[in-house]
């Protein structure tokens, strides 16, 4: 009796241990074999598909660009043999995921999408992204000189390129033509005062319609606020010093706060771009200020009730002129821990190459290539009135929409807190003074490094 | 020979997986967090960790956001816990009777608890949406002024408490209900024989007998409610301003938005010590108060 019991125990233990070890072990040979394959494949580059059976992981964001690329992944596999495993995340989650994986070596990431203004400094500083110059010089067909100069600049540190620009974005005003007609507004606002005036006329809380909707949630709002800050003559950093409590900056905070406090939607202090977008597309906001790259959502009859009533105009001018941002919103890079760097470059070369760039432009992506913008055929799907606003914005656009620094996350929280405070009607001067002190401390800390 | 050895050490061998699991999943992260809290580190692969002693801790106490976050964590927990226990016990007592559709009601009460917290957060964001959400429709229907809920620092934290109460009252109810059904019938019979009213039975017999159960429910909820993260992150991420920034949210932002792992770890170490001491005090009190009948 006792011995059978013991036997059962032993068997149980044995199976447990065996399963434990096989579970641990099975991963390894598989990983080895893929690296072996890819290096073998790289050596025999004479075959038609040098990357047969190579798998790469690509993590990115949700946009029209992404949809078009994902729809064409099969074709890419046919051409190169590379299987792309795509994972889509929201902006902040994407950044978190890259950080966590990279800190752990980054071998589970190959191609990564990142926001150059937010992350180039951080990622290069931490050694998470691979310099691309060597790959670029090996690929003359890719024609790196075709990309906007400003776009390349923002992806480069100390003369080395760490990302390839993917998408540009400009700050514009969207408006609801029907609500404008109802309010008797015949011409679009040209100055900040006219913007305030129009928002006042359009605001109709009884019907649940806000005059204007812009981001009000602290750090999210900083990028949209940049256009106001500069229109009033201020900036985040002036001569290397924090400058968010200058008289100009305080005026801008006050204006942005008053605009949204008086004529913004209820609860705007907790809104990001998705919330203002749904209000606008549901006809609950007469105007909306955000990036032009989101126009597709407003025009899609499946998600928008006002798809046939959308108009656009250039961000109005303040005392210091009209200063909308015109930035490179996204770029592609290669994780420095990647085991498939050649295959990853192959993917970047394909997805941002001239041919695909025209395709994604047709799908609605504002390109970063000169050749695509001068190609009439590529831009035929953009609404004509939007192209006009883009063309007016391009020459006056400012290349950054947030303080360009390593710890931009914390800086955005500090500045965003003043924006939210202004919307909630708090003492802007006191908040701006305090925030400027904290902002300066962040800048000092980076200077020390 | 080997068999004999195995036989002798069977108790160790069988507990080994558990020990490995506890070491890897609980003790290691705890220890690592403690170590990190003495360093400055931005998750960098090229810039090594820098030992800075207690600086992370001292910097927290001069941080404008830390102490309010501590206060908020306790305020949120105390209010939510109070209502969860009050409502949970009341509903359990109410349901402890024969009535038609009792099981349906019980199941319905459990639904919020089984829903994924992030989904709950997203659904409540829609409910609370001031322009198109249903919360304001209801508020207006009963003749009150519409609120902005999560959009104002005055109401955001209270709105989140409401979500927590909605979601976790059923758990207290479930535990208490189980406690009631395990009570022996004798005390109730003798109370009836002695001519006690229903009210007297409730206060003098049922509740005292349920005391250990209620204490257990409070302890479980207390630890959970202090840790609340998901519904806050899914709705406000600590905003508007810093109005709903609890210790967990603050720590998350320090770590993954500002890449200051040391400061984030220091916050969590302080948090861990606080939660541990509260739980210890609570268990002491529980043991003292509990009497066998």
Topology:
The complex is a heterodimer of chains A (449) and B (293).
Chain A: H1 2-43, E1 55-60, H2 64-71, H3 73-80, E2 83-88, H4 91-103, E3 111-114, H5 116-125, H6 133-137, H7 149-154, E4 156-157, E5 160-161, E6 164-176, H8 177-182, H9 192-202, E7 210-213, H10 218-231, E8 237-238, E9 241-242, H11 247-263, H12 273-281, E10 285-291, H13 295-299, E11 310-314, E12 326-334, H14 341-351, H15 354-362, H16 370-374, H17 384-396, H18 408-423, H19 428-448
Parallel strand pairs in A: 1-2, 1-3, 7-10
Antiparallel strand pairs in A: 3-12, 4-5, 6-10, 6-11, 6-12, 8-9
Chain B: H1 2-8, H2 10-36, E1 39-40, E2 50-51, H3 55-62, H4 66-95, H5 102-114, H6 117-128, H7 134-141, H8 156-181, H9 186-193, H10 198-226, H11 230-235, H12 247-256, H13 261-289
Antiparallel strand pairs in B: 1-2
Keywords (chain A): Signal, Sugar transport, Transport
Signal peptide (chain A): 1-25
Organism (chain A): Ruminiclostridium cellobioparum subsp. termitidis CT1112
What does this protein look like?
The complex is a heterodimer of chains A (449) and B (293). Chain A is 51% helix and 14% strand. Chain A contains 19 helices and twelve strands. In chain A, strands 1, 2, 3, 6, 7, 10, 11 and 12 form an eight-stranded mixed beta sheet that branches. About 7% of the residues of chain A have low confidence. Chain B is mainly alpha-helical. Chain B has a domain of 187 residues: MetI-like (MetI-like fold, Orthogonal Bundle), CATH 1.10.3720. Chain B contains 13 helices and two strands. The mean pLDDT of chain B is 87. A two-stranded antiparallel sheet of chain B has the order 1-2. Chains A and B meet through helix 1, helix 4 and helix 18 of A and helix 1 and helix 2 of B.
